[in-house]
Amino acid sequence: MEEKKWWKESVVYQIYPRSFMDSNGDGIGDLNGITSKLDYLKDLGVDVIWISPIYESPNDDNGYDISNYKAIMKEFGSMEDFDRLLSEAHKRNLKIVMDLVFNHSSDEHPWFVESKKSLDNPYRDYYVWKPAKDGEEPNNWRSWFSGPAWEYSKETDMYYLHIFSKKQPDLNWENDKVREELYSIIDWWCKKGVDGFRMDVINFISKVQSYPDGQKEDDQLYGDKIPYIANGPRVHEFLQEMNKQVLSKYDLITVGETTHVTTEDAKQYAGFDTHELNMVFQFEHMTLDYGKLGKWSTNRIPFIPLKKILSKWQYELEGKAWNSLYWENHDQPRIVSRLGNDSMEYRDLSAKMLGTCLLMMKGTPYIYQGQELGMTNIEFQSIEDFRDVEILNAYDEFLDNKLATAEEMMQYFNLKGRDNARTPMQWDESEHAGFTKGTPWIQVNPNYTYVNAKSQIKDSNSIYSYYKELIRFRKEMEVLVYGTYNLLEENDENLYVYTRTLGNTTLLVICNFTDKELSYAIPREYEQAKIIINNYPHRTNNSIIRPYEAVVYCKE
Ligand code: TEU
Ligand code: CA
Protein backbone atom coordinates (compact mmCIF):
# COMPACT_ATOMS: atom_id res chain seq x y z
CA MET A 1 0.00 0.00 0.00
CA GLU A 2 1.15 3.53 -0.70
CA GLU A 3 2.37 5.83 2.04
CA LYS A 4 -0.27 7.02 4.49
CA LYS A 5 -0.71 10.77 4.85
CA TRP A 6 -3.25 12.78 6.82
CA TRP A 7 -4.03 14.93 3.79
CA LYS A 8 -4.99 11.85 1.81
CA GLU A 9 -7.42 10.87 4.56
CA SER A 10 -8.94 14.34 4.94
CA VAL A 11 -12.12 15.87 3.58
CA VAL A 12 -11.81 19.57 2.77
CA TYR A 13 -14.60 22.14 2.96
CA GLN A 14 -14.27 25.35 0.95
CA ILE A 15 -15.54 28.63 2.33
CA TYR A 16 -16.12 31.70 0.19
CA PRO A 17 -15.97 34.16 3.08
CA ARG A 18 -17.95 36.95 1.47
CA SER A 19 -20.97 34.65 1.21
CA PHE A 20 -20.68 32.34 4.20
CA MET A 21 -21.86 34.15 7.34
CA ASP A 22 -22.16 37.83 8.21
CA SER A 23 -21.66 38.60 11.91
CA ASN A 24 -22.13 42.39 11.95
CA GLY A 25 -25.02 43.13 9.62
CA ASP A 26 -23.13 44.88 6.82
CA GLY A 27 -24.32 42.27 4.33
CA ILE A 28 -20.85 40.80 3.82
CA GLY A 29 -19.66 37.52 5.30
CA ASP A 30 -16.69 37.79 7.64
CA LEU A 31 -14.21 35.93 9.85
CA ASN A 32 -16.32 36.08 13.00
CA GLY A 33 -19.14 34.65 10.94
CA ILE A 34 -16.93 31.69 10.03
CA THR A 35 -15.87 31.20 13.65
CA SER A 36 -19.53 31.09 14.67
CA LYS A 37 -20.11 28.19 12.28
CA LEU A 38 -17.15 25.97 13.19
CA ASP A 39 -19.39 23.63 15.16
CA TYR A 40 -21.54 23.19 12.07
CA LEU A 41 -18.47 22.12 10.09
CA LYS A 42 -17.30 19.86 12.90
CA ASP A 43 -20.70 18.21 12.93
CA LEU A 44 -20.55 17.67 9.18
CA GLY A 45 -17.29 15.84 9.78
CA VAL A 46 -14.82 17.64 7.54
CA ASP A 47 -11.21 17.98 8.72
CA VAL A 48 -9.86 20.90 6.74
CA ILE A 49 -11.30 24.30 5.85
CA TRP A 50 -9.97 26.13 2.81
CA ILE A 51 -10.92 29.79 2.95
CA SER A 52 -10.88 31.83 -0.27
CA PRO A 53 -8.67 34.96 0.07
CA ILE A 54 -9.18 37.09 3.18
CA TYR A 55 -6.27 39.48 2.67
CA GLU A 56 -6.47 43.23 2.19
CA SER A 57 -7.90 43.81 -1.27
CA PRO A 58 -9.72 46.45 -3.32
CA ASN A 59 -12.08 43.60 -4.28
CA ASP A 60 -12.01 43.92 -8.02
CA ASP A 61 -12.16 40.11 -8.05
CA ASN A 62 -13.46 39.53 -4.51
CA GLY A 63 -10.11 39.15 -2.81
CA TYR A 64 -8.23 37.46 -5.65
CA ASP A 65 -6.55 40.85 -6.10
CA ILE A 66 -4.39 41.29 -3.02
CA SER A 67 -2.87 44.59 -1.90
CA ASN A 68 -1.28 43.31 1.30
CA TYR A 69 -0.48 39.63 1.82
CA LYS A 70 -0.01 40.00 5.56
CA ALA A 71 -3.15 41.95 6.45
CA ILE A 72 -6.83 41.02 6.71
CA MET A 73 -9.44 42.68 4.49
CA LYS A 74 -11.26 45.25 6.66
CA GLU A 75 -14.69 43.98 5.59
CA PHE A 76 -13.74 40.54 6.89
CA GLY A 77 -12.40 41.68 10.27
CA SER A 78 -9.01 42.02 11.89
CA MET A 79 -5.89 39.93 12.45
CA GLU A 80 -7.16 39.29 15.99
CA ASP A 81 -10.34 37.84 14.48
CA PHE A 82 -8.18 35.64 12.29
CA ASP A 83 -6.06 34.44 15.21
CA ARG A 84 -9.21 33.60 17.10
CA LEU A 85 -10.66 31.72 14.12
CA LEU A 86 -7.43 29.73 13.80
CA SER A 87 -7.27 28.83 17.47
CA GLU A 88 -10.99 27.97 17.67
CA ALA A 89 -10.57 25.77 14.60
CA HIS A 90 -7.54 24.04 16.08
CA LYS A 91 -9.39 23.46 19.35
CA ARG A 92 -11.89 21.48 17.33
CA ASN A 93 -9.19 19.67 15.43
CA LEU A 94 -10.08 21.51 12.23
CA LYS A 95 -7.26 22.66 9.98
CA ILE A 96 -7.15 25.94 8.08
CA VAL A 97 -5.92 26.28 4.49
CA MET A 98 -5.15 29.73 3.13
CA ASP A 99 -5.62 30.75 -0.49
CA LEU A 100 -2.37 32.02 -1.98
CA VAL A 101 -2.73 34.28 -4.99
CA PHE A 102 0.82 34.62 -6.25
CA ASN A 103 0.47 34.73 -10.01
CA HIS A 104 -0.60 38.35 -9.65
CA SER A 105 -1.21 40.97 -7.00
CA SER A 106 -3.56 43.94 -6.94
CA ASP A 107 -2.53 47.04 -8.87
CA GLU A 108 -2.94 48.76 -5.49
CA HIS A 109 -0.24 46.63 -3.88
CA PRO A 110 2.66 48.94 -2.86
CA TRP A 111 4.99 46.86 -5.10
CA PHE A 112 2.94 47.77 -8.15
CA VAL A 113 2.38 51.36 -7.09
CA GLU A 114 6.17 51.68 -7.02
CA SER A 115 6.78 49.55 -10.08
CA LYS A 116 4.76 51.75 -12.40
CA LYS A 117 6.48 54.98 -11.32
CA SER A 118 9.70 54.80 -13.30
CA LEU A 119 12.03 52.52 -15.22
CA ASP A 120 14.66 52.64 -12.48
CA ASN A 121 12.33 52.08 -9.56
CA PRO A 122 13.62 49.19 -7.38
CA TYR A 123 10.27 47.44 -7.82
CA ARG A 124 10.16 47.85 -11.61
CA ASP A 125 11.02 44.21 -12.29
CA TYR A 126 8.47 42.86 -9.84
CA TYR A 127 5.99 42.91 -12.73
CA VAL A 128 6.07 42.25 -16.47
CA TRP A 129 6.54 45.43 -18.52
CA LYS A 130 6.83 45.60 -22.31
CA PRO A 131 6.92 48.42 -24.84
CA ALA A 132 4.25 48.80 -27.51
CA LYS A 133 4.58 46.76 -30.68
CA ASP A 134 3.67 48.69 -33.85
CA GLY A 135 1.85 51.21 -31.69
CA GLU A 136 -0.29 48.53 -30.07
CA GLU A 137 -0.23 45.98 -27.25
CA PRO A 138 2.98 43.91 -27.00
CA ASN A 139 1.15 40.81 -28.23
CA ASN A 140 -2.31 39.50 -29.08
CA TRP A 141 -3.23 37.79 -25.79
CA ARG A 142 -6.68 38.22 -24.33
CA SER A 143 -7.24 38.76 -20.64
CA TRP A 144 -9.22 36.00 -18.93
CA PHE A 145 -11.70 38.70 -17.97
CA SER A 146 -12.10 40.26 -21.46
CA GLY A 147 -10.06 42.76 -23.47
CA PRO A 148 -6.31 42.64 -24.07
CA ALA A 149 -4.00 41.10 -21.45
CA TRP A 150 -1.90 44.29 -21.50
CA GLU A 151 -2.68 47.66 -20.00
CA TYR A 152 -0.96 50.87 -21.02
CA SER A 153 0.71 52.92 -18.30
CA LYS A 154 1.52 56.49 -19.23
CA GLU A 155 4.18 57.07 -16.53
CA THR A 156 6.74 55.06 -18.46
CA ASP A 157 4.93 54.68 -21.78
CA MET A 158 4.87 50.91 -21.46
CA TYR A 159 2.36 48.09 -20.97
CA TYR A 160 2.05 45.69 -18.05
CA LEU A 161 0.79 42.12 -18.32
CA HIS A 162 -2.44 41.08 -16.62
CA ILE A 163 -3.70 37.59 -17.45
CA PHE A 164 -6.78 38.37 -15.33
CA SER A 165 -8.36 41.81 -14.79
CA LYS A 166 -6.35 44.97 -15.32
CA LYS A 167 -6.39 45.38 -11.55
CA GLN A 168 -4.49 42.06 -11.28
CA PRO A 169 -0.99 42.67 -12.73
CA ASP A 170 1.11 39.49 -13.13
CA LEU A 171 4.08 39.17 -10.82
CA ASN A 172 7.43 38.54 -12.48
CA TRP A 173 8.61 35.20 -11.12
CA GLU A 174 11.83 35.45 -13.15
CA ASN A 175 12.96 38.00 -10.57
CA ASP A 176 14.71 36.23 -7.66
CA LYS A 177 13.61 38.96 -5.29
CA VAL A 178 9.94 38.40 -6.08
CA ARG A 179 10.26 34.70 -5.32
CA GLU A 180 12.04 35.43 -2.05
CA GLU A 181 9.31 37.85 -0.99
CA LEU A 182 6.61 35.32 -1.81
CA TYR A 183 8.33 32.46 0.02
CA SER A 184 8.76 34.63 3.07
CA ILE A 185 5.02 35.39 3.03
CA ILE A 186 4.31 31.65 3.04
CA ASP A 187 6.74 31.22 5.90
CA TRP A 188 5.07 34.03 7.86
CA TRP A 189 1.65 32.35 7.62
CA CYS A 190 3.14 28.96 8.49
CA LYS A 191 4.69 30.45 11.62
CA LYS A 192 1.25 31.71 12.54
CA GLY A 193 0.11 28.11 12.45
CA VAL A 194 -1.93 27.73 9.28
CA ASP A 195 -2.09 24.19 7.97
CA GLY A 196 -1.77 24.53 4.24
CA PHE A 197 -2.29 26.43 1.04
CA ARG A 198 -4.43 26.37 -2.06
CA MET A 199 -2.38 28.09 -4.75
CA ASP A 200 -4.30 30.13 -7.27
CA VAL A 201 -3.46 29.49 -10.97
CA ILE A 202 -0.06 28.30 -9.82
CA ASN A 203 0.74 26.69 -13.17
CA PHE A 204 0.71 30.14 -14.84
CA ILE A 205 3.69 31.59 -12.94
CA SER A 206 6.35 30.87 -15.55
CA LYS A 207 5.78 32.55 -18.90
CA VAL A 208 7.64 31.94 -22.16
CA GLN A 209 9.99 34.89 -22.04
CA SER A 210 9.71 35.89 -25.69
CA TYR A 211 6.00 36.68 -25.12
CA PRO A 212 5.02 35.68 -28.66
CA ASP A 213 1.66 36.25 -30.33
CA GLY A 214 -0.69 33.35 -29.85
CA GLN A 215 -2.17 31.42 -32.74
CA LYS A 216 -5.34 33.06 -33.98
CA GLU A 217 -8.15 32.10 -36.33
CA ASP A 218 -9.33 34.77 -38.77
CA ASP A 219 -12.64 35.30 -37.02
CA GLN A 220 -11.04 35.63 -33.60
CA LEU A 221 -10.05 38.81 -31.82
CA TYR A 222 -7.21 37.35 -29.80
CA GLY A 223 -4.53 34.68 -30.05
CA ASP A 224 -4.18 31.61 -27.85
CA LYS A 225 -1.94 32.51 -24.90
CA ILE A 226 -2.21 29.19 -23.10
CA PRO A 227 0.89 27.54 -24.66
CA TYR A 228 2.99 30.46 -23.41
CA ILE A 229 1.65 30.79 -19.87
CA ALA A 230 0.44 27.38 -18.69
CA ASN A 231 3.00 24.89 -17.35
CA GLY A 232 5.78 27.17 -18.56
CA PRO A 233 9.51 26.53 -18.84
CA ARG A 234 10.50 27.15 -15.21
CA VAL A 235 7.32 26.28 -13.31
CA HIS A 236 8.63 23.03 -11.83
CA GLU A 237 11.93 24.63 -10.91
CA PHE A 238 10.05 27.38 -9.04
CA LEU A 239 7.79 24.97 -7.20
CA GLN A 240 10.68 22.75 -6.19
CA GLU A 241 12.49 25.80 -4.92
CA MET A 242 9.39 26.89 -2.95
CA ASN A 243 9.05 23.40 -1.58
CA LYS A 244 12.68 23.22 -0.53
CA GLN A 245 12.85 26.68 0.99
CA VAL A 246 9.58 26.70 2.88
CA LEU A 247 6.85 24.09 2.31
CA SER A 248 9.03 21.13 3.28
CA LYS A 249 9.77 22.69 6.67
CA TYR A 250 6.16 22.30 7.81
CA ASP A 251 3.54 19.57 7.79
CA LEU A 252 1.11 21.08 5.27
CA ILE A 253 -1.62 20.24 2.81
CA THR A 254 -0.91 21.91 -0.54
CA VAL A 255 -3.10 21.99 -3.61
CA GLY A 256 -2.40 23.84 -6.83
CA GLU A 257 -5.17 25.28 -8.92
CA THR A 258 -4.08 24.32 -12.41
CA THR A 259 -6.27 24.83 -15.41
CA HIS A 260 -4.92 23.30 -18.63
CA VAL A 261 -3.05 20.40 -17.04
CA THR A 262 -2.76 16.90 -18.35
CA THR A 263 -2.25 13.84 -16.19
CA GLU A 264 1.41 13.93 -17.26
CA ASP A 265 1.74 17.47 -15.88
CA ALA A 266 -0.05 16.46 -12.69
CA LYS A 267 2.31 13.56 -12.09
CA GLN A 268 5.06 16.15 -11.88
CA TYR A 269 3.17 18.79 -9.84
CA ALA A 270 1.72 16.28 -7.41
CA GLY A 271 4.02 13.28 -7.71
CA PHE A 272 4.74 11.25 -4.59
CA ASP A 273 8.46 11.98 -4.96
CA THR A 274 8.67 15.16 -7.03
CA HIS A 275 8.75 17.58 -4.06
CA GLU A 276 6.32 20.15 -5.42
CA LEU A 277 2.68 20.02 -4.21
CA ASN A 278 0.44 17.37 -2.65
CA MET A 279 -2.21 17.56 -5.36
CA VAL A 280 -3.72 19.77 -8.05
CA PHE A 281 -7.20 20.75 -9.19
CA GLN A 282 -7.57 19.64 -12.79
CA PHE A 283 -10.27 21.14 -15.00
CA GLU A 284 -10.87 18.60 -17.76
CA HIS A 285 -14.23 17.49 -16.39
CA MET A 286 -15.28 21.12 -15.84
CA THR A 287 -14.70 22.18 -19.44
CA LEU A 288 -16.70 19.38 -21.08
CA ASP A 289 -19.71 21.67 -21.46
CA TYR A 290 -17.74 24.45 -23.14
CA GLY A 291 -18.81 25.61 -26.58
CA LYS A 292 -17.72 28.00 -29.34
CA LEU A 293 -17.65 30.89 -26.87
CA GLY A 294 -15.79 28.91 -24.22
CA LYS A 295 -17.66 28.53 -20.96
CA TRP A 296 -20.57 30.65 -22.24
CA SER A 297 -22.76 27.96 -23.72
CA THR A 298 -25.94 26.05 -23.00
CA ASN A 299 -24.24 22.66 -23.36
CA ARG A 300 -24.65 20.00 -20.71
CA ILE A 301 -21.68 17.93 -19.59
CA PRO A 302 -21.73 14.82 -21.82
CA PHE A 303 -21.85 11.66 -19.72
CA ILE A 304 -19.55 9.14 -21.42
CA PRO A 305 -16.70 11.66 -21.81
CA LEU A 306 -17.19 12.61 -18.16
CA LYS A 307 -16.68 9.00 -17.07
CA LYS A 308 -13.70 8.68 -19.41
CA ILE A 309 -11.96 11.75 -18.06
CA LEU A 310 -12.54 11.10 -14.39
CA SER A 311 -11.43 7.51 -14.88
CA LYS A 312 -8.34 8.58 -16.79
CA TRP A 313 -7.31 10.74 -13.81
CA GLN A 314 -7.94 7.87 -11.42
CA TYR A 315 -5.94 5.37 -13.47
CA GLU A 316 -3.05 7.54 -14.52
CA LEU A 317 -2.23 8.92 -11.09
CA GLU A 318 -2.57 5.55 -9.33
CA GLY A 319 0.55 4.86 -7.29
CA LYS A 320 2.32 7.93 -8.68
CA ALA A 321 0.52 11.08 -7.65
CA TRP A 322 -2.53 12.15 -5.65
CA ASN A 323 -5.89 13.34 -7.00
CA SER A 324 -8.19 16.05 -5.74
CA LEU A 325 -11.92 15.48 -6.19
CA TYR A 326 -14.41 18.26 -6.75
CA TRP A 327 -17.68 19.13 -8.44
CA GLU A 328 -17.97 22.71 -7.20
CA ASN A 329 -16.00 25.73 -6.11
CA HIS A 330 -16.47 29.50 -6.11
CA ASP A 331 -15.85 29.61 -9.89
CA GLN A 332 -18.30 26.90 -10.93
CA PRO A 333 -22.08 26.70 -11.11
CA ARG A 334 -23.92 24.42 -8.69
CA ILE A 335 -23.47 20.74 -9.59
CA VAL A 336 -27.06 19.70 -8.84
CA SER A 337 -28.21 22.21 -11.48
CA ARG A 338 -25.36 21.52 -13.89
CA LEU A 339 -25.11 17.74 -13.86
CA GLY A 340 -27.98 16.59 -11.66
CA ASN A 341 -31.59 17.68 -11.61
CA ASP A 342 -32.68 20.64 -9.51
CA SER A 343 -36.43 20.09 -9.94
CA MET A 344 -38.59 19.64 -6.82
CA GLU A 345 -38.86 15.95 -7.61
CA TYR A 346 -35.20 15.08 -8.04
CA ARG A 347 -33.01 17.71 -6.38
CA ASP A 348 -32.63 15.68 -3.22
CA LEU A 349 -31.88 12.35 -4.90
CA SER A 350 -29.58 13.72 -7.56
CA ALA A 351 -27.58 15.81 -5.06
CA LYS A 352 -27.03 12.68 -2.97
CA MET A 353 -26.14 10.64 -6.03
CA LEU A 354 -23.54 13.19 -7.15
CA GLY A 355 -22.08 13.30 -3.65
CA THR A 356 -21.77 9.51 -3.65
CA CYS A 357 -20.18 9.39 -7.08
CA LEU A 358 -17.53 11.92 -6.07
CA LEU A 359 -16.76 10.95 -2.49
CA MET A 360 -16.31 7.26 -3.24
CA MET A 361 -13.50 8.00 -5.70
CA LYS A 362 -9.81 8.06 -4.90
CA GLY A 363 -8.37 11.40 -3.91
CA THR A 364 -8.97 14.17 -1.39
CA PRO A 365 -12.57 15.42 -1.70
CA TYR A 366 -13.40 19.13 -1.63
CA ILE A 367 -16.93 20.14 -0.70
CA TYR A 368 -17.95 23.70 -1.53
CA GLN A 369 -20.19 25.58 0.91
CA GLY A 370 -23.82 24.72 0.32
CA GLN A 371 -23.04 21.66 -1.79
CA GLU A 372 -23.83 19.60 1.31
CA LEU A 373 -27.33 21.14 1.24
CA GLY A 374 -27.91 20.66 -2.48
CA MET A 375 -27.87 24.41 -3.10
CA THR A 376 -28.82 25.23 -6.69
CA ASN A 377 -28.05 27.82 -9.33
CA ILE A 378 -29.95 31.09 -9.04
CA GLU A 379 -31.89 32.72 -11.86
CA PHE A 380 -31.20 36.43 -12.09
CA GLN A 381 -33.54 38.54 -14.22
CA SER A 382 -31.26 41.48 -14.90
CA ILE A 383 -27.58 42.07 -15.58
CA GLU A 384 -27.65 44.47 -12.59
CA ASP A 385 -28.10 41.49 -10.27
CA PHE A 386 -24.69 40.03 -11.16
CA ARG A 387 -21.55 41.02 -9.26
CA ASP A 388 -18.75 38.99 -10.86
CA VAL A 389 -16.08 40.91 -12.81
CA GLU A 390 -15.83 38.03 -15.29
CA ILE A 391 -19.55 38.26 -16.06
CA LEU A 392 -19.78 42.03 -16.22
CA ASN A 393 -16.76 42.33 -18.50
CA ALA A 394 -17.89 39.47 -20.74
CA TYR A 395 -21.32 41.06 -21.12
CA ASP A 396 -19.82 44.25 -22.56
CA GLU A 397 -17.19 42.49 -24.64
CA PHE A 398 -19.55 39.96 -26.21
CA LEU A 399 -22.25 42.52 -26.95
CA ASP A 400 -19.81 45.10 -28.34
CA ASN A 401 -18.38 42.51 -30.69
CA LYS A 402 -21.81 41.03 -31.51
CA LEU A 403 -20.71 37.56 -30.41
CA ALA A 404 -24.03 36.97 -28.66
CA THR A 405 -27.26 38.77 -27.84
CA ALA A 406 -28.11 40.14 -24.41
CA GLU A 407 -30.71 37.37 -23.97
CA GLU A 408 -28.19 34.70 -24.84
CA MET A 409 -25.64 36.15 -22.44
CA MET A 410 -28.19 36.22 -19.61
CA GLN A 411 -28.97 32.60 -20.29
CA TYR A 412 -25.26 31.65 -20.25
CA PHE A 413 -24.64 33.56 -17.02
CA ASN A 414 -27.55 31.88 -15.28
CA LEU A 415 -26.30 28.47 -16.37
CA LYS A 416 -22.54 28.85 -16.01
CA GLY A 417 -21.76 32.11 -14.23
CA ARG A 418 -19.61 32.18 -11.13
CA ASP A 419 -22.22 34.12 -9.17
CA ASN A 420 -24.27 30.91 -8.96
CA ALA A 421 -21.80 29.68 -6.37
CA ARG A 422 -21.56 33.02 -4.62
CA THR A 423 -25.11 33.60 -3.44
CA PRO A 424 -25.25 33.56 0.36
CA MET A 425 -25.09 30.32 2.29
CA GLN A 426 -28.60 29.24 3.23
CA TRP A 427 -28.61 28.77 7.00
CA ASP A 428 -32.32 28.88 7.86
CA GLU A 429 -35.77 30.01 6.69
CA SER A 430 -35.56 33.50 8.24
CA GLU A 431 -35.06 36.63 6.14
CA HIS A 432 -31.93 36.53 3.91
CA ALA A 433 -31.59 32.85 4.84
CA GLY A 434 -30.05 33.79 8.18
CA PHE A 435 -26.90 34.92 6.37
CA THR A 436 -27.18 38.58 7.41
CA LYS A 437 -29.35 40.99 9.34
CA GLY A 438 -28.53 43.67 6.77
CA THR A 439 -28.79 43.72 2.99
CA PRO A 440 -26.74 40.94 1.38
CA TRP A 441 -24.09 42.07 -1.13
CA ILE A 442 -25.61 39.64 -3.65
CA GLN A 443 -29.15 38.24 -3.71
CA VAL A 444 -30.07 35.18 -1.73
CA ASN A 445 -31.50 32.29 -3.74
CA PRO A 446 -35.28 32.42 -3.11
CA ASN A 447 -35.35 28.68 -2.51
CA TYR A 448 -33.77 29.23 0.95
CA THR A 449 -37.24 28.78 2.44
CA TYR A 450 -36.92 25.04 1.83
CA VAL A 451 -33.21 24.59 1.00
CA ASN A 452 -31.42 25.48 4.22
CA ALA A 453 -29.09 24.05 6.84
CA LYS A 454 -31.42 24.32 9.81
CA SER A 455 -34.07 22.04 8.37
CA GLN A 456 -31.52 19.56 7.04
CA ILE A 457 -29.47 19.19 10.21
CA LYS A 458 -32.44 17.77 12.09
CA ASP A 459 -33.63 15.58 9.24
CA SER A 460 -31.81 12.25 9.13
CA ASN A 461 -32.84 11.81 5.48
CA SER A 462 -31.54 15.16 4.29
CA ILE A 463 -28.73 15.79 1.83
CA TYR A 464 -26.71 17.19 4.75
CA SER A 465 -27.14 14.00 6.80
CA TYR A 466 -26.29 11.94 3.75
CA TYR A 467 -23.03 13.87 3.17
CA LYS A 468 -22.25 13.34 6.84
CA GLU A 469 -22.56 9.60 6.26
CA LEU A 470 -20.38 9.71 3.16
CA ILE A 471 -17.70 11.58 5.09
CA ARG A 472 -17.94 9.17 8.01
CA PHE A 473 -17.45 6.22 5.65
CA ARG A 474 -14.28 7.83 4.30
CA LYS A 475 -12.98 7.93 7.86
CA GLU A 476 -13.96 4.38 8.68
CA MET A 477 -13.02 2.49 5.54
CA GLU A 478 -9.44 2.48 4.42
CA VAL A 479 -10.50 1.18 1.03
CA LEU A 480 -12.07 4.57 0.30
CA VAL A 481 -8.77 6.35 0.79
CA TYR A 482 -6.18 3.89 -0.42
CA GLY A 483 -8.09 1.40 -2.57
CA THR A 484 -7.59 1.23 -6.32
CA TYR A 485 -10.30 2.36 -8.73
CA ASN A 486 -11.76 0.40 -11.60
CA LEU A 487 -14.43 1.57 -14.03
CA LEU A 488 -17.13 -0.89 -15.13
CA GLU A 489 -19.70 -0.50 -17.91
CA GLU A 490 -17.71 2.26 -19.53
CA ASN A 491 -20.09 2.57 -22.46
CA ASP A 492 -23.28 2.64 -20.44
CA GLU A 493 -25.06 5.91 -21.28
CA ASN A 494 -26.82 6.28 -17.93
CA LEU A 495 -24.95 4.51 -15.18
CA TYR A 496 -21.63 5.32 -13.60
CA VAL A 497 -20.36 2.06 -12.13
CA TYR A 498 -16.98 1.58 -10.52
CA THR A 499 -15.20 -0.41 -7.85
CA ARG A 500 -12.66 0.41 -5.15
CA THR A 501 -10.45 -2.40 -3.93
CA LEU A 502 -8.00 -2.78 -1.08
CA GLY A 503 -6.84 -6.20 0.04
CA ASN A 504 -9.93 -8.40 0.32
CA THR A 505 -12.37 -5.52 0.45
CA THR A 506 -14.17 -4.34 -2.66
CA LEU A 507 -16.79 -1.65 -2.94
CA LEU A 508 -19.14 -1.50 -5.90
CA VAL A 509 -20.50 1.97 -6.57
CA ILE A 510 -23.51 2.36 -8.88
CA CYS A 511 -24.90 5.79 -9.77
CA ASN A 512 -27.82 6.52 -12.06
CA PHE A 513 -27.30 9.91 -13.71
CA THR A 514 -30.81 9.97 -15.23
CA ASP A 515 -34.44 10.31 -14.16
CA LYS A 516 -35.18 6.91 -15.69
CA GLU A 517 -35.64 3.61 -13.95
CA LEU A 518 -33.08 1.25 -15.44
CA SER A 519 -32.68 -2.45 -15.40
CA TYR A 520 -29.18 -3.44 -14.44
CA ALA A 521 -28.25 -6.75 -12.93
CA ILE A 522 -25.45 -6.20 -10.49
CA PRO A 523 -22.47 -8.52 -11.05
CA ARG A 524 -23.20 -11.90 -9.47
CA GLU A 525 -20.37 -11.75 -6.93
CA TYR A 526 -22.09 -8.82 -5.22
CA GLU A 527 -25.48 -10.45 -4.83
CA GLN A 528 -24.73 -11.37 -1.22
CA ALA A 529 -22.72 -8.21 -0.55
CA LYS A 530 -23.77 -5.74 2.09
CA ILE A 531 -25.33 -2.44 1.05
CA ILE A 532 -23.52 0.30 2.95
CA ILE A 533 -24.90 3.38 1.20
CA ASN A 534 -28.14 4.03 -0.63
CA ASN A 535 -29.99 7.25 -1.32
CA TYR A 536 -33.38 5.46 -1.32
CA PRO A 537 -34.84 4.08 1.92
CA HIS A 538 -35.01 0.42 0.88
CA ARG A 539 -33.50 -1.63 -1.87
CA THR A 540 -35.62 -4.59 -2.77
CA ASN A 541 -34.77 -5.49 -6.33
CA ASN A 542 -31.16 -6.17 -7.26
CA SER A 543 -31.77 -5.71 -10.95
CA ILE A 544 -33.42 -2.28 -10.96
CA ILE A 545 -31.67 1.06 -10.51
CA ARG A 546 -34.18 3.81 -9.76
CA PRO A 547 -33.99 7.47 -10.97
CA TYR A 548 -30.83 9.12 -9.65
CA GLU A 549 -30.24 6.15 -7.38
CA ALA A 550 -26.83 5.72 -5.81
CA VAL A 551 -25.96 2.48 -4.09
CA VAL A 552 -22.70 1.14 -2.71
CA TYR A 553 -22.13 -2.57 -2.04
CA CYS A 554 -19.32 -3.82 0.14
CA LYS A 555 -17.82 -7.28 -0.27
CA GLU A 556 -15.15 -8.62 2.08
O1 TEU B 1 -9.22 31.01 -11.14
C1 TEU B 1 -8.47 30.80 -12.29
C2 TEU B 1 -9.24 30.19 -13.36
O2 TEU B 1 -8.71 29.58 -14.24
C3 TEU B 1 -10.68 30.48 -13.25
O3 TEU B 1 -10.70 31.72 -13.85
C4 TEU B 1 -11.63 29.58 -13.86
O4 TEU B 1 -11.16 28.86 -14.94
C5 TEU B 1 -12.73 30.47 -14.29
O5 TEU B 1 -13.17 31.21 -13.18
C6 TEU B 1 -13.86 29.77 -14.86
O6 TEU B 1 -14.57 30.79 -15.46
C7 TEU B 1 -8.62 31.58 -10.04
C8 TEU B 1 -9.66 31.86 -8.98
O7 TEU B 1 -10.23 30.64 -8.57
C9 TEU B 1 -10.66 32.82 -9.52
O8 TEU B 1 -11.70 33.05 -8.62
C10 TEU B 1 -9.93 34.11 -9.82
O9 TEU B 1 -10.81 35.01 -10.43
C11 TEU B 1 -8.74 33.89 -10.74
O10 TEU B 1 -7.94 32.78 -10.36
C12 TEU B 1 -7.83 35.08 -10.70
O11 TEU B 1 -7.20 35.13 -9.45
CA1 CA C 1 -19.88 41.46 7.87
What Rg is obtained from the alpha carbons, in whole angstroms? 23 Å
Please state how the strands of the largest beta sheet are arranged side by side: 11-10-9-5-2-1-13-12
Indicate the CATH topology of the largest domain. Answer: TIM Barrel
Compute the average pLDDT. Answer: 97
- The end-to-end span amounts to 18 Å
| Helical segment count | 17
Q: What is the fourth-level CATH superfamily of the largest domain?
A: Glycosidases
Structure summary:
The protein is an alpha/beta fold. Helix content is 28%, strand content 16%. It has three domains: 19-105 and 176-469, Alpha-Beta Barrel (TIM Barrel), CATH 3.20.20.80; 110-161, Oligo-1,6-glucosidase, domain 2; 484-555, Golgi alpha-mannosidase II (Immunoglobulin-like), CATH 2.60.40.
Key descriptive features of the protein:
single chain; 556 residues; alpha/beta; TIM Barrel; Oligo-1,6-glucosidase, domain 2; Immunoglobulin-like; 3 domains; 8-stranded parallel sheet; 5-stranded antiparallel sheet; 17 helices; 20 strands; 16% strand; globular; binds 1-O-alpha-D-glucopyranosyl-D-fructose; binds calcium ion
